[in-house]
């Protein structure tokens, strides 16, 4: 069955190899076991139930929380030639009847259902030949999770009604407590549990602390203008902020829209559809936006404010770079966020839990060690090495003895009877002449103006460090006033020292309204031109079929086309994400575009000969094909296609170290019997007993001989 699964993966989804754990998860499902899957956003969760669904003789029912997510996934499956449908509140009675009839007749392999629709659908589901139940976003069932949804609690009925049908529960964010609760609430029977690595090395992590709103807005405008045509999401705490920020961005020629729960359903749907279909570049949104976004080419995510917890932060940044390409994430963090989020947590039903989770995300934002290490270790995965792709790794923090600085702050705080908040403390330290300072007589205390040599921003960052180090604490029940801890008093009286980190200094140019003509991206290379031409062709197909462009081909697939410039069906099939169905549907036009481009411009900045030579060079240095793929950031299948082409051309390569004479003979006979050069035809003829890359190499051997 796993061999058959490999064939399905290539034919329908265009991938040569399973990602880590996918093969084991699929085997567990095919063995009829209940299964719990914890895999990060973009890690390939859907493949884990979609591949088994195509192998099982019956229907897979998928419980999915959002209508938009259902539609995206069903559209993508249909493009791949897979029978898929959904049932939710957006459909008429007649539309539902058509779907039900198709399910009964076996025309549908995957049926997506909302949790709200489940209870009334149980009698109907009994008429179907259900072989698998998949629960997506399974953390929503647990009150310990960061996104609890009451409608998910009724899912326990599934095990009661379909006791012999295996259930696979999937989520991107769940700590140990939440995982146990998912298993309990779904009544899973001795489930096989798979926890994939949470490392998303393609995401750059950056945190910016204590930046005022105006400066923050300037930075964001500059950042977006440096990323022309790139899709991005900006998460904000309040509805008002999303609207104000979107308006500011539009004033600077950024195609931006707001999204929040206060908008009408029609307006929210329009914004989401525009973003998915690349009609809007940037969405400024509250956390209500995102779970339904299956958009693979989001290149960056910005958090305008500190998130409530690490789970939410991790899931939100995970919406960037789902296609595996380099993507950026920026988190802006200010003390005002802490005050507001603490109020939310204090008023919530799970006060202690939410306060603790807030403390953990605050520690992450204030950390002076590798951020990825903190993030991944939070989810119980051991990550020892620093990542080299976060702001701390790229700019290691410099420490200094901050004892005197801390003593100044504590002395001022105690002289004001520990009755003031952060802003007042800084104003007094800097010798401010504000009316409130003078009215309270704080200009008369000994430490008034003792810190006038430091900016307000620097003092704010130092006080945040003091909070995190436990030198001071915030009394949330006394108007958020600051109090010295016992550790603080020991430092004040010279019994202990304080180790602080120098603030990060940033320069931001003044932002002006930029004319549209000045921000139009300049296409400089022939490869850039080819990529844009491929994007336009993809857009034509997407508009004709009324689906998102990335459902046709991902940006990663287009980038690989630019690098490899395939001009035959077999060459295009070696591109990751292109299976037989997409080849048959779109291949001719894309090959024709690439061929015409080469005829007009040559092969661009890097020719096929060049890329083959790079592979040959590494092979001659005794790199394995797997090491060549990793070193050059190519798929393993592409490396083997290089090896085959190099061998045919006459380069000195020992092909028999990769494929045996027996396998070559079997491929030769299959090639003769089928009369086809297509890898898929030969693979099927040999019943999957010879792998795709070996078929490619064998055909190369046969052609050269």
TrEMBL record:
Q: Which GO terms describe its cellular component?
A: bacterial nucleoid; cytoplasm; replisome
Q: Where is the Helicase ATP-binding domain?
A: 26-192
| Pfam families linked | DEAD (PF00270), Helicase_C (PF00271), HRDC (PF00570), HTH_40 (PF14493), RecQ_Zn_bind (PF16124), RQC (PF09382)
This protein's record includes keyword Coiled coil: no
Q: Which GO terms describe its molecular function?
A: 3'-5' DNA helicase activity; ATP binding; DNA binding; four-way junction helicase activity; hydrolase activity; metal ion binding
E.C. number: 5.6.2.4
User: What's a single GO BP term from this record?
Assistant: SOS response
> Which cofactors are named for this entry?
Zn(2+); Mg(2+)
User: Helicase C-terminal domain: from which residue to which, for each copy?
Assistant: 219-380
Is the DNA damage keyword given for this protein?
Answer: yes
Q: InterPro entries under this entry? A: DEAD/DEAH_box_helicase_dom, DNA_helicase_ATP-dep_RecQ, DNA_helicase_ATP-dep_RecQ_bac, Helicase_ATP-bd, Helicase_C-like, Helicase_HTH, HRDC-like_sf, HRDC_dom
Q: Give the catalysed reaction(s), semicolon-separated.
A: Couples ATP hydrolysis with the unwinding of duplex DNA by translocating in the 3'-5' direction
HRDC domain location is: 524-604
Q: Specify the enzyme's EC class, one word.
A: isomerase
What does the UniProt keyword field contain?
Answer: ATP-binding, DNA damage, DNA recombination, DNA repair, DNA-binding, Helicase, Hydrolase, Isomerase, Metal-binding, Nucleotide-binding, Zinc
Q: Which family does it belong to?
A: Belongs to the helicase family. RecQ subfamily.
Protein name per UniProt: DNA helicase RecQ
């Amino acid at each position: 069955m796993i061999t058959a699964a490999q064939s399905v993966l290539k034919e329908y989804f265009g991938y040569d190899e399973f990602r880590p754990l996918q093969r084991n998860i699929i085997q567990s499902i095919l063995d009829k076991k209940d299964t719990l899957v914890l895999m990060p956003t973009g890690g390939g969760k859907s493949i884990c139930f979609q591949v088994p669904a195509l192998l099982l003789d019956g229907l897979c029912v998928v419980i999915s929380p959002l209508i938009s997510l259902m539609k995206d996934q069903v559209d993508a499956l249909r493009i791949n030639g897979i029978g898929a449908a959904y049932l939710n509140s957006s459909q008429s009675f007649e539309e539902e009847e058509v779907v039900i009839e198709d399910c009964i007749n076996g025309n549908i392999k995957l049926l997506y259902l909302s949790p709200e629709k489940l209870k009334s659908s149980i009698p109907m589901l009994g008429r179907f030949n259900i072989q698998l139940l998949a629960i997506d976003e399974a953390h929503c069932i647990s009150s310990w999770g960061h996104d609890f949804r009451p409608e998910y609690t009724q899912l326990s009925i599934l095990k009661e009604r379909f006791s012999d049908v295996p259930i696979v529960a999937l989520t991107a964010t769940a700590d140990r407590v939440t995982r146990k609760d998912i298993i309990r609430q779904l009544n899973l029977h001795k489930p096989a549990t798979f926890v994939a690595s949470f490392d998303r090395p393609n995401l750059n992590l950056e945190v910016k602390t204590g930046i005022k709103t105006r400066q923050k807005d300037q930075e964001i405008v500059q950042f977006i203008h440096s990323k022309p045509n790139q899709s991005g999401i900006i998460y904000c705490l309040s509805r008002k902020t999303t609207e104000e920020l979107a308006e500011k961005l539009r004033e600077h020629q950024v195609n931006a829209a707001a999204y929040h729960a206060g908008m009408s359903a029609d307006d929210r749907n329009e914004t989401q559809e525009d973003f998915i279909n690349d009609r809007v570049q940037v969405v400024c949104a509250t956390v209500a936006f995102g779970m339904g976004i299956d958009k693979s080419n989001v290149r960056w995510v910005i958090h305008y404010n500190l998130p409530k917890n690490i789970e939410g932060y991790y899931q939100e940044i995970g919406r960037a770079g789902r296609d595996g390409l380099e993507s950026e994430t920026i988190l802006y963090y200010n003390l005002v966020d802490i005050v507001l989020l603490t109020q939310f947590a204090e008023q919530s039903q799970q006060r202690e839990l939410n306060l603790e989770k807030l403390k953990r995300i605050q520690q992450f934002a204030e950390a002076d060690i590798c951020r990825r290490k903190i993030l991944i270790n939070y989810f119980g995965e051991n990550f020892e090495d620093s990542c080299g792709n976060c702001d701390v790794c790229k700019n290691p923090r410099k420490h200094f003895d901050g004892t005197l600085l801390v003593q100044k702050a504590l002395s001022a705080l105690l002289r004001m009877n520990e009755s003031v908040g952060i802003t007042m403390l800084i104003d007094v330290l800097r010798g401010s002449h504000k009316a409130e300072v003078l009215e309270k007589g704080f200009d008369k205390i000994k430490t008034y103006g003792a810190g006038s040599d430091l900016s307000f921003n620097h003092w704010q960052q130092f006080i945040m460090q003091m909070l995190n180090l436990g030198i001071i604490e915030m009394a949330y029940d006394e108007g958020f006033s600051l109090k010295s801890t016992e550790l603080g008093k020991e430092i004040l009286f010279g019994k202990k020292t304080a180790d602080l980190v120098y603030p990060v200094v940033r320069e931001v140019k003044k932002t002006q309204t930029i004319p549209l003509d000045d921000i139009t991206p300049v296409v400089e290379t022939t490869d850039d031109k080819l990529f844009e031409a491929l994007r336009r062709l993809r857009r034509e197909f997407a508009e004709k079929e009324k689906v998102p462009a990335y459902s046709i081909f991902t940006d990663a697939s287009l980038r690989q086309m630019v690098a490899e410039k395939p001009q035959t069906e077999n060459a295009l099939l070696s591109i990751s994400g292109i299976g037989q169905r997409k080849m048959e549907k779109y291949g001719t036009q894309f090959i024709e575009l690439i061929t015409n481009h080469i005829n007009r411009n040559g092969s661009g900045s890097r020719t096929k000969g060049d890329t083959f030579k790079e592979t040959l060079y590494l092979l001659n240095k005794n790199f394995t094909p797997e090491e060549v793929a990793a070193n050059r950031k190519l798929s393993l299948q592409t490396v083997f296609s290089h090896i085959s082409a190099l061998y045919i051309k006459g380069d000195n390569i020992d092909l028999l170290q990769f494929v045996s004479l027996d396998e070559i003979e079997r491929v030769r006979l299959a090639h003769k019997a089928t009369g086809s050069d297509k890898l898929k035809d030969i693979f099927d003829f040999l019943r999957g007993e010879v792998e795709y890359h070996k078929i490619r190499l064998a055909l190369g051997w046969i052609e050269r001989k």
